Amino acid sequence: MGEYVVSLYVLVLAGFLGYEVIRKVPPTLHTPLMSGANAISGVTLVGALAVAAGGQVAVSRVLAALAVVCATANVVGGFLVTHRMLAMFGRDR
Description:
By secondary structure, the protein is mainly α. It has helices spanning 2-23, 30-54, 58-87. Helices cover 83% and strands 0% of the residues. It starts with a helix and ends in a 6-residue tail after the last helix.
């Protein structure tokens, strides 16, 4: 029971810290930050695929499959948003 409380504490603390960091990012840094988040989501995607492939329990496979879907949506959406934002700075054709 103690390790669950510590894990919950770390999750809540990471959530608050992430919120505060993202909230204070100026708009000019949004595109580079989005590119970095895409790289992190790519690592998450690889980890989720590894868990989905080697999961012994059905619940872990289902959660890993859900993680694969969420990470894939995050990576694709992030690249689309980054591409669109960078296109705004290109010359008109």
